[in-house]
UniProtKB/TrEMBL annotation:
Residues 5-92 form the Manganese/iron superoxide dismutase N-terminal domain. This is Superoxide dismutase. The lineage of its organism: Bacteria, Candidatus Staskawicziibacteriota. Belongs to the iron/manganese superoxide dismutase family. Its EC number is 1.15.1.1. It is an enzyme of class 1 (oxidoreductase). It comes from Candidatus Staskawiczbacteria bacterium RIFCSPLOWO2_12_FULL_37_15.
Length: 209
């Protein structure tokens, strides 16, 4: 039986490199504690599922699990892992030359939202208005219309409201763990600052895939 566990990816930049928009302290904690936590939890759940599978039918073992609770928790932790993996990649330091919006993705945004400014407003409002913890996501739905379409989606927690058919091009984590030490309760200010470190080159690459 094949067993693949999840791994914490390295960041494509240093912990200090997104300053002053995201501090070294916040980025370090976010990556090494929070993201690592989702990876560890997902792997622990997989371990339990594998154990239950392997011992199924054995009379002397009682490893059967509560699939309702395990599946729900696995969905939360795996989605948390996947979103954070994308989140690290769609940011880049301001001296990287990757923060300038350009190319086909910008044309697609203009076609779908009217203008880049309008898109940013709608995306920021979506992020600001997440109740509790969650994400704002720009997703591409290829089956919709002749050329596909872009949509802004609000995800609660890591996995509520997410549609697997849609490819995530850009995502913003508005869990408090991602900004509270830097911005306190001012989520709007964090969102405004975050636009400075968006890696448009990577967003464009994901779109052209
Ligand atoms: Mn997070």
């Amino acid at each position: 039986m094949e067993k693949n566990s999840y791994k914490l990816p390295n960041l494509p930049y240093g912990y200090k490199d997104l300053e002053p928009y995201i501090s070294e302290e916040v980025l370090t904690l976010h990556h090494t504690k929070h993201h690592q936590g989702y990876v560890n939890a997902a792997n622990a759940l997989l371990e339990r599922i594998w154990n239950a599978r392997e011992s199924s039918g054995a009379q002397d073992k009682n490893t059967e699990i509560d699939y309702k609770s395990v599946s729900k928790s696995l969905s939360f932790n795996v989605a948390g892992h996947i979103l954070h993996e994308i989140f690290w990649k769609i940011m880049a330091p301001t001296n990287s030359g990757k923060n300038k919006p350009q190319g086909e993705i910008i044309k697609a945004i203009e076609n779908n939202f009217g203008s880049l400014e309008r898109f940013k407003t709608e995306f920021s409002e979506t992020a600001k208005s997440v109740e509790g913890s969650g994400w704002a996501v720009l997703a591409y739905h290829k089956e919709h219309g002749d050329n596909g379409s872009l949509a802004i989606i609000q995800i609660e927690k890591h996995n509520v409201n997410f549609y697997p058919e849609q490819k995530i091009l850009l995502c913003l984590d508005v869990w408090e763990h991602g900004y509270y030490l830097d911005y306190k309760n001012d989520r709007a200010k964090f969102i405004e600052s975050w636009w400075n470190v968006v890696n448009w080159e990577e967003v464009g690459r994901r779109f052209s895939e």
